[in-house]
Amino acid sequence: MTAYPEAEALTPPPAAPEPAQLPHPDRLGRVRLGVIGVGKMGLSHLSIARALAEVEVVGVCDSTDYVLDVLGKYTGLRTFGSVDKMLSETRPDAIVVATPTGTHAPLVRTALEQGLHVFCEKPLTLSADESKELAQIAADRGLVAQVGYHNRFIATFGEVKRLLDAGVIGRPGHILAEAYGPVVLKHKGSTWRSKRTTGGGCLYDYAAHPIDLVNWFLGVPDQIRGSVLHSIFSTETDDEVYSTFLYDDGPSAQISVNWSDDSYRKMSTSVTVSGSLGRIFADRQEIRVYLREGAEPPPGYRIGWNVRYTTELTPAVSFYLRGEEYTAQLESFVGAVKAGERTARQNSFAGAAETDRILEEILRDSRRPLEIASDAPATTRRERWMPRRQGQRR
Asked: Which of 124, 264, 71, 273 is nearest to 182 (CA)?
């Protein structure tokens, strides 16, 4: 595999293949969709997809016979225990991959090599090199390849992006991106989420969301420092993630994530942005904006505090399940496929590969020895330079 240089961009896609080489919606204008993996997220995507007028779900694949039996009995959908069989017998235009993260790479590669558009749950893979390679395949073939970073479809976070791009709070100085919630609250048996090699732990499964938002707002950081991964209940991976991002042009960002925090009723993500002319706080429910004298308020805003709620910012979607953002991201994916577009409108594989590279760098940074002043006592220097190990507290 090729290396992933800091500033290397994907090469431009070649000329479009002949029409016969690309999958097409059926004669009724619907996109033929296959779903691989029907756990929590897979079932959500399946339910939403079946409610979209422009989609025909042609097959569902999973490794659990009982789940397939129930789906087949109560929905009438064609079910498969083999991905190859589903693809060959149903001939979909696109697939949704909602399996454990460690299985994404081979499934996505198979689909792309067969000329299928792909919507994949996040993170794309557990390897930045693999993610970059898959992004290149999708670009070369002109396929819509999207990753499920649904926070970009939450209206309050979209409003943050709009305000920052318009320079409303001046020059951004710092972003605090946080995610807390009660996901892992006791020592328990091993699952795919609890293993570094299959799920990636809190870093890959939850910290990826606020990190992706920071990338969207500020771009990819130039340096990553002070990363700390802690285990609270998990034995094979991390439950807490803390890291600092530095940018050569001045801004900084801090990531703070804990999926073992039962002071929250459910997993919650928020961002706080400080700028030269104001401050923004946003979460799933609202955005609060403070504008100093000298700022130029856009329509709907004024100097001082402003509060807007997700209910007034969120566009209507055709079907509601769990949140408008989950339908919005699939509508975006399906819309791009149906329109014959050659890349995702949002959350492309290329952007997801950048996030995966940062996740890898945080993991590497967390294993570096701490740097301290040279005049510190010798015993302190020796203790502080001991490599930090996952789950080890001082």
From this structure: 264
Statement: residue 4 has pLDDT above 70? no
Q: How far apart are the first and last CA of the chain?
A: 38
Determine the Cα–Cα distance for residues 42 and 103; give it in Å rounded to an integer.
14
Residue 187's pLDDT is what? 80
Work out the average pLDDT over 21-39: 76
Q: Is the pLDDT of residue 54 over 60?
A: yes
Question: 3-class SS at 178?
Answer: strand
For the record, the structure tokens of 30 come out as 């619907």
> Can you list the positions of beta strands (E) in 217-369?
223-230, 240-246, 252-258, 268-275, 278-283, 286-291, 304-309
Residue 236: DSSP 8-state: S
d(CA 123, CA 199) in angstroms, rounded, equals 9
CB 259 within 8 A of CB 206: yes
The answer to whether 97 touches 117, Cβ cutoff 8 Å, is: no
Q: Which of 178, 105, 184, 115 is nearest to 147 (CA)?
A: 105
H/E stretch holding 33 reads strand 31-36
Report d(CA 346, CA 23) in Å as an integer. 21
The answer to whether residues 55 and 31 touch, using CB atoms and an 8 Å cutoff, is yes
User: How does pLDDT run across 276-326, given as a tens digit for each residue?
Assistant: 999 999 999 999 999 999 999 999 999 999 999 999 999 999 999 989 999
pLDDT-based confidence at residue 9 (cuts at 50, 70, 90) = very low
Residue 339: half-sphere exposure toward Cβ, Cα within 13 Å: 12
- The DSSP bridge pattern shows strands 145-147 and 117-120 to be parallel
CA angle (62, 68, 74) in 5-degree steps: 140
Q: Could you tell me if 267 and 181 are in contact, meaning their C-beta atoms sit under 8 angstroms apart?
A: yes
CA 259 to chain centre: 16
pLDDT of residue 5: 34
Q: Are 256 and 246 in contact (CB under 8 A)?
A: no
Whole-prediction pTM value? 0.85
Across the strands, what pairs with 279?
274, 290
pLDDT tens-digit map of 105-138: 999 999 999 999 999 999 999 999 999 999 999 9
CA atoms within 13 A on the CB side of 65: 0
Rounded to whole angstroms, how far apart are CA atoms 62 and 68? 7
Length of the chain measured in residues: 394
State yes or no: pLDDT of 236 exceeds 60.
Answer: yes
